[in-house]
Amino acid sequence: MVSELLIPGCQSWDYELLLEYFTSRDVQEILKITLPSTLRHDRIIWHQTNDGVYSVKSAYKILMAELEQHRTANNIEKWKELWKFKAPAKFKTLLWQAFRNCLPTRTNLSRRGINCPLVCVICTRDMENTWHIFVSCPYAAQCWTISNMKDIVDQCAKNADRFVDWFFKVLMAGDKVNVGGKENNAIGRTPTEWRKPQYQFLKCNVDATFFTETRSMRFGMVVRDTEGKCIGCRSMVMEGLYEVKEGEAMGLCEALSWIREMNFNQVIFGMDAQIIVKAILPLKS
Ligand SMILES: [Zn+2]
Q1: Are residues 85 and 99 in contact, defined by beta-carbon separation less than 8 angstroms?
Q2: What single string gives the DSSP state of each residue in 17-69?
Q3: Which region, left, alpha or beta, applies to residue 44 given φ > 0 means left and ψ of -120 to 50 means alpha?
Q4: How far, in Å, is the centroid of ligand 1 from the Cα of 122?
Q5: Superfamily of domain 202-284
Q6: What are the beta bridge partners of residue 218?
Q7: Of 45, 98, 166, 238, which sits 20 to 30 A from 18 (CA to CA)?
């Protein structure tokens, strides 16, 4: 108790006693504390409120401030990663706006004084904000389902309460590939420039992605004409995890079947798995 550190009957610190319990530096600080003119009983106070009385509200405020500080520090690091993405500038700008919550969603427009309904313009079920348009809107859910990412998206949504956290969780879950002990991250890939196919030809680009957590592979394929216009695309999931070269070859087989089903003729194939390209090229000659 503080009162035990005072000289009995006097309103001054017991210097000798202070030296017994504290370092000389702390003692100098304690001696700077002005003692009250009248003696009072010691009591426990909460120093976060003016009256010294603890309140849940003040504790909540402190915890939220700490959480925000922590998040800001994390987000700054994440945002640095954003500008390194090998992606079109407009995509990065869109993400940056979503991270900063400055997309012109109806909620944000209303906050800025624009008189408009708050409900989502597409589904009319919920408030239109960044989280809704990318995550919880049924229309967004359909898009994630078509791209075979619904499971990942939903799983990440359970463990994130802000768009930026959710996005990086999805990115980590979807792009981290770990096959044969090697880790690869799609962010770091160097993009190759897409070249149009020659006149009267179509070009089909195909790629495979590997998901160790769900032990599955996903294939994506897109067919474009000589103008670069997309005339067909498909994505599919396959259970099981194979080596990269096997998975890429299976992706190519799926693409060939699909091209045949679609009756596309004179198709040139493009893929980034050099081992498969080298294995197939001699067949052409
Ligand atoms: Zn909606």
Answers
A1: no
A2: HHHHHS-HHHHHHHHTSPPPSS--------TTSTT----HHHHHHHHHHHHHH
A3: beta
A4: 5
A5: Ribonuclease H-like superfamily/Ribonuclease H (3.30.420.10)
A6: 209, 237
A7: 45
* Gap between the Cα atoms of 187 and 129, Å rounded: 27
pLDDT the model gives residue 51: 82
Residue ranges for the chain with pLDDT beneath 70: 39, 69, 71-78, 174-193, 282-285
107 C-alpha to ligand 1 centroid (Å): 12
Q: Are 234 and 213 in contact (CB under 8 A)?
A: no
Residues with CB under 5 A from ligand 1 (ion): 120, 122-123, 137
CA of 166 from ligand 1 middle (Å) equals 18
* 8 Å CB contact between 250 and 237: no
Q: Give the residue extent of every domain in the chain.
A: 1-50, 77-175, 202-284
Q: Phi, psi at residue 235, to the nearest 5°?
A: -135, 150
245 near 273, Cβ under 8 Å?
yes
Query: Per this entry, what is the length of the chain?
Result: 285
What is the value of pTM for the model shown? 0.42
d(CA 149, CA 174): 8
Q: How far is the CA of 136 from the centre of ligand 1 (A)?
A: 7
Please report, as a single letter, which amino acid is at residue 95: L
Of 90, 80, 107, whose CA–CA distance to 164 is shortest?
80
For residue 175, what pLDDT is reported? 59
Going from the Cα of 140 to the center of ligand 1, the distance in angstroms, rounded, reads: 8
**Tens-place pLDDT, residues 84-129:** 877 778 888 888 889 888 899 999 999 889 999 999 999 998 999 9
Tally Cβ neighbours within 10 Å of residue 72.
Answer: 10
